[in-house]
Amino acid sequence: MDTARLISLDREHLIHPVSSWRGHEAAGATILESGKGAWLTDSEGRRLLDGFAGLWCVNTGYGCDSVIEAGRRQLEKLPYATGYFGFSCEPAIELAARLTRHAPGTLNRIYFSLGGSDAVDGTLRFIRYYQNARGMPQKRHVIGLEKGYHGSSFAGSGLTALPVFHRDADVPLPWQHHLPSPDPYRHPAGPDGEAIIHASVRALHDMVASLGGPDQVAAFYCELVQGSGGVIVPPDGWARAMQAACRELDILFVVDEVITGFGRTGPLFACAHEGLEPDMMTVAKGLTAGYAPMGGVFLSDAVYETIRDNTPPGVAIGHGQTYSAHPVSAAIGLAVLDLYEGGLLDNGVAAGRHLAARLAGLGNHPLVGATRAKGMLAGIELVTDKAAKAKPDPKLGIAGKLGRYGYEQGILYRAFADDVIGLAPPLCCSTDEIDILCDGIVAVLDRVM
Ligand code: PLP
């Protein structure tokens, strides 16, 4: 592999997601070449322990023979099958049936998208279909959370509440709103879980009232751990209380499990922690563990049936993509699900326990303001003054240093802005690998100081 040539062509021709175009051209890419288990190798032969599972997606680790074989077999047999015009295909049907068996509540139907952003975009459309079908077209406002991330489709980027996705993009749209994040480290109500829950429920009621009452509000969205906003773990009971408030207000409770799904927090779906029964749920990432693109939108029986029964016979519901329920992605999804069911979730739970214990020990580090973990999803919040919870000054360039030093240390994680290290190791990690990752982070933090 001619690394210099690739870096040069990359600079000249490839536009990268959510990146500084100038910065990328100046720095040049690191070219990843291969992966096995939790380890990547780049084009210079450097081995890197992937503490972020690619982009919180390669939950199985790299190079799983059964997954590769399932994709290969499906490519040979039938590489594409449309879901339009009355056609379907075996892997998509089997995957839908198996996933809905595991899904919470009455989420008995799934629409397969290509990834998380278009899954979220799909929910926004299904919400419109649903409220129109109920004869309540005026129920239009949608509420998300500050620090929430729901992808970067046009409408989804407005539901997202991170500044980089709003800048120069004409979002949020006028019907999109955000409540304070249930962040125990920085919530104005203080760290007490009950106080945060109380304040969040109240804020939802107040916002609904300010938008003209429940008749004007269609849905509330949340992640069960806010991922890209800085791995924020809400207090136990928060999501259940928000679900109850939504039911009381007659607004749809939509859970975005794009990151938290597929064992990332322990169980197959994070809804299981509190017995949630959302009206809609989005997934992607761990669904195929990154081996092929695929996402999904689960609909509850009530939502599905309301749309179906109020659409005149023979009239199409106009939501679809060429690659919805792609057979190769679906075959891969089935093989990945076999791994989750075959012990991978258990390994993730054990490794996650070890990760949480190791992170708790980091609390004494002068740069660490808070650590948080739920299963194999964790965050380390950095501060320059613990008492004042002062975020590092961007002029210190900590994010850049974290990326560079981590690479030199042979570990990968995500540095959010300048103040949070995000971790989402593959669920296949051994406790030794978690130790390598955590020891590496300590070495990086000591160097950054
Ligand atoms: N929703 C959540 C919670 C996410 O974390 C992401 C991506 O990180 C998305 C949606 C968008 O998914 P994708 O990047 O597959 O479009």
Automatic annotation (TrEMBL):
<dbReference type="Pfam" id="PF00202">
    <property type="entry name" value="Aminotran_3"/>
</dbReference>
<dbReference type="InterPro" id="IPR015422">
    <property type="entry name" value="PyrdxlP-dep_Trfase_small"/>
</dbReference>
<keyword id="KW-0032">Aminotransferase</keyword>
<dbReference type="InterPro" id="IPR049704">
    <property type="entry name" value="Aminotrans_3_PPA_site"/>
</dbReference>
<keyword id="KW-0808">Transferase</keyword>
<protein>
    <submittedName>
        <fullName>Aminotransferase class III-fold pyridoxal phosphate-dependent enzyme</fullName>
    </submittedName>
</protein>
<keyword id="KW-0663">Pyridoxal phosphate</keyword>
<comment type="similarity">
    <text>Belongs to the class-III pyridoxal-phosphate-dependent aminotransferase family.</text>
</comment>
<dbReference type="InterPro" id="IPR005814">
    <property type="entry name" value="Aminotrans_3"/>
</dbReference>
<dbReference type="InterPro" id="IPR015421">
    <property type="entry name" value="PyrdxlP-dep_Trfase_major"/>
</dbReference>
<dbReference type="GO" id="GO:0008483">
    <property type="term" value="F:transaminase activity"/>
</dbReference>
<dbReference type="InterPro" id="IPR015424">
    <property type="entry name" value="PyrdxlP-dep_Trfase"/>
</dbReference>
